[in-house]
Structures are given as C-alpha cells and as structure tokens.
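Q: Convert this sequence to structure tokens.
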Amino acid sequence: KEFFTDRLLSLCVGWLGDDISSIREAAAKDLQELTALLGSEWSVSNLLPRVRQVMEHSSYLRRMNAVRALSLMATAMDVYTAQWEVLPILLEMHCDPVPNVRFNVAKGLGMIGPMFNPSVYEGQIVTILELMKEDSDRDVRFFACQSSDSLCATFDKKRNEN
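A:
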C-alpha cells in the first residue's frame, strides 16, 4: 500500500485528465479496482481528496471523468462509506455548469442508488433527480429520467419482496 500510495497514486489519478478518452475511462475503472483491493478507508484517505481536486478543475472533461470515477469507486465501497463520503460529493455536482457533467451525475446516481436503503434513496437521490428532470438541457433530463425510472423499479421490487 505504501509503495503504491507514495509512487503511483498521483499517476493513476492524473490519467483522469488524459487527452485520450479510453485512457480516462480506464483510469476510472482502475480507481474502482484500487478501492476494491485496498479498501474503503484507504480510498477515502488517499483517492477521494485527489478525485475531489479533479472535480474542481476548469476542464469539464476532467470533472466528468471524476464523476464517473467517483460513481465506480462507490460501487466498490461499503454502503456506509459510499453514503457518507461519496454520495454528498456526487449530489453537489448536479449544479455543474456543463450539461455533460450533470448528466454523468444522473447516470452515477442511477448506478449507485441501489446500494442504499429506501430512506437515503427517497430523501436524497430522488430529490436531486427530480430537479435534474427539470434541467434546461435535454440530455440531462433524459438521463435523470432514465436513472429515476430504473431506481424506482428497483426500489418497488425491493418493497414487494418484503
């Protein structure tokens, strides 16, 4: 862990800003795998601060890839950590000025939403997706509706099973 953290972590996170899209996508998946391998606590301490920095970058491509990476990382975390460390960051990004970032937030919420219990889903995720369904950009509206419909079906199914 120490060798990786000291010598390779900056390189891996830096790939989120690469000029080649397939490198950026691979970097997001690598961060998910690192989270699974090294654990939620390590990820929160070492990856999250660096991914947050990328989310504040002036380039929308970097912010968009950071949102994707964050969503993927959350799927490899325990639910508690994903809820308290990742979800708030993802929810705040719904206000990004660039539609591509916002619709990736909607997609990310659709991806990680099933992890959470109904009160988190209804109290936090639904609220943001409802706002996004009224967005001025049609792609944001489309992905917000898609994620909303998918999550609604998932949580309805869970309710019916109980």
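The two ends are 41 Å apart (CA to CA).
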